[in-house]
Amino acid sequence: MALDIKKFLLRFIEEAQDHLSQMAEGLADLEKGEVNAEQINSLFRSAHTLKGSSRMLKLFPITETAHSLEDLLSALREGQVHVDSDNLGLLYQGVDQLSDYIATLSDTLDADRLSPADAALCTALTAAAQGATKTAVTTDVEPEMPSPADSADTLVPAALRTSETVRIRLSKLEELIKLMGEVVSSHAGLREMTRIAQQLELQAQKKEDAELASGLQQFSRTLKDRIQLQELLMQDLHDIGLQMRMLPLSIVFEPATRLVRDLARSLGKQVECRVQGADIELDRQMIDQLADPVIHLLRNALDHGIETAQARLAAGKPEQGLLQLKASQDGGWVVIEIIDDGAGVDLDAIRNKALSKQLITADALESLTEQEVRDLIFLPGFSTSAMITDLSGRGVGMDVVKRTVIDNLQGAISIESRAGEGARFTLRLPLSLAMMRVLLVRVSGQLLGFTAQYVAELVSVPRSKMVEVADRNAVIVRNEFVPVMKLSELMDLPPMPVTSKHPARAEPDVLLLITRLHHEKLALEIDELIDERDLVIKQLPPHLRNNSLISGMVTTGHNHLVSLLHVPHLMTLSKRSRSFMPDRGKAESGREKLRQRILVVDDSLNTREIERDVLEAWGYQVTLAENGQDGLDKALAEDFDAVLTDVEMPVMDGFTLTAKLRQDARYQHKPIIIITSREKESDRRRGIQVGADAYIVKGSFDQSSLVDT
To answer: From start to end of 431-479, where are the E strands?
Structure first.
């Protein structure tokens, strides 16, 4: 069945205009001498995106021109050539040519009106990428202008099929939703009025003015009722407005399935593409930005994941590979999964490429978990492809996916993979970015916000219940060590002055906001929880969008602007702050003496990290395993001097792991230590029965006792 590309041309034109505008600004910056890696990366990503999107719609002149631009930008990014007047001239000509093509498309919505790609310009761009020094080429080819319609069939205006539909200009709809957002934001000020009325009522009661107090009480109740009613009406209005902007995922999924077929054919692979949940709707703002991540993940699955028919037969698989594109709704979230039954993520290939690209040091790589190794594919410039083609190997794609999903769409992305069994990429996205659930907190006198998708829970614990591990605090929550950081210290906020003149009292409990990203958690110490409610998210102005710490703004009562903190960046800051640990220094003298290898088995990422930090600080080499079966496989594949294991884990628990290890001759007499939150005497006895040498309860965890043990 032929694909009607006119259905998607308008969206492509809008996307292309944005990319070309960004490229023009980027080239202007380069011309001013503002040359930096991120600037060139941004230009490269735009060219790459235009190439991929146009190829999907068979706009081949645009594809060829964007590909040639990408060649030169790739060479600039890798340092093979440098930014000079000749190369800048060629880049400008390429962008101008693309702009002409987009203008023609915008006027005609007819791909056949595009003139062929300028062969001289494409050749010059490719030659420049190889180091040739040529001046900017000139061309006599003018973009073909639309001719008058010869018949009534040339451009057929869309007709209303039923009386229930009406065509609305998108700009008008955007203005309506923006205006509704402002109304919702300003409504927050009315809440403040109810608080003021209640305060006046209390003051009247203190003055024993019964009549005034009664009047204020009645006024306060009436005002509160009216505000609640208005709130419900505005919420309904805002919801209906957003529904008008919702579009089905089929807009992305439908061309994606065609892309899979075309790319599979070009790669000589047999692939079946199955789609599920294409009728689920997302805000158009989300749809517009979702195409690139989906395209990159599909290309990744086809090029790196699914094997050739011969390789699949040799591995005992069906000749035809299976690529699934699934969508489902989970409350206010949409989950998109891209699943293939290919070779899976090759961890050794990732490690080797990361080292060869100097993206990580050998020492740092040795300490990474398998999940952290998989996450290396999201680094800019990373690619395991041995050959650069028009599909892959250029080191672009997965970093775009991460940047778009996490930073732009406020979502999350995770990878699951086992060697030989394929891979699953899961995207978790909010239905809309226009309004989200927000927690407002106070830290060092500052009002700050967190979007709810990153918040796991809020807990209050006595400071005495915290444990110190690897020179940092942690708290135990449901059998899991969660590192604790003061949010004020992470953000470098000044501490609040102590003004209390009361005698010393017992130290108050610590209020912790536990944030979550994938399988990683971080407990942030805050001063106060102010509120939790749905708020309109305002985008940062252009000059502030490079601030990785802030993802947006919300407005509270009295028109106060509150910054929304970006949890992924906070976690990065947390890792940097704990990368230097004084404990490591004092243990250096014993490092050469020890060097024993220890296997740490725990299903909690945070617990594994904390135990590793403690042990590495004292000179041990540490390998991590994510569950009992993973631990058993690694223990049998290598040789360890000791094993530390949790009890409650998926696939295989710690008791079973200990018993199985004791059946192996190599581990009959080696130390096996159980670290768990189970405190019952029956659990301790069972641990000893299966062969554990020691049983440490996490609630009484002490790093010195662990090292001594």
So the answer is: 435-443, 446-451, 455-461, 467-469, 472-476
Residues 525, 566, 571, 532: is their CA dihedral positive or negative? positive
Task: Return the H-helix or E-strand segment holding 330.
Answer: strand 321-330
128-187 tens-digit pLDDT:
998 865 444 544 433 333 353 333 333 333 322 223 444 566 676 777 777 776 676 666
Q: Are residues 210 and 294 in the same domain?
A: no
Residues 415 and 457 in one domain: no
Give the contacts of 529 (CB within 8 A, at least 6 positions apart): 439, 440, 441, 458, 511, 513
Are 400 and 275 in the same domain?
yes
The answer to whether 410 touches 433, Cβ cutoff 8 Å, is yes
Which CATH number characterizes residue 444's domain? 2.40.50.180
Buried b (16+ CB within 10 A) or exposed e, 10-31: ebbeebbeebbeebeebbeebe
Radius of gyration of the chain (CA): 30
State whether residue 37 is helix, strand or coil: helix
Give the domain extent around 278: 248-430
Kindly report the pTM of this predicted structure: 0.59
235 and 290 together in one domain: no
β-pairing verdict for 321-330 and 271-276: parallel
- Reading the block at residue 285, the tokens are 């703002």
Strand partners for 334: 329, 429
Q: What is the pLDDT of residues 251-299, one digit of tens each?
A: 888 778 778 888 888 888 988 888 899 888 888 878 888 888 888 899 8
Residue 706, Cβ neighbours under 10 Å: how many? 18
Q: How many CA atoms lie within 13 A of 503 on its CB side?
A: 0
What backbone torsions phi and psi does residue 624 show, to the nearest 5 degrees? -110, 145
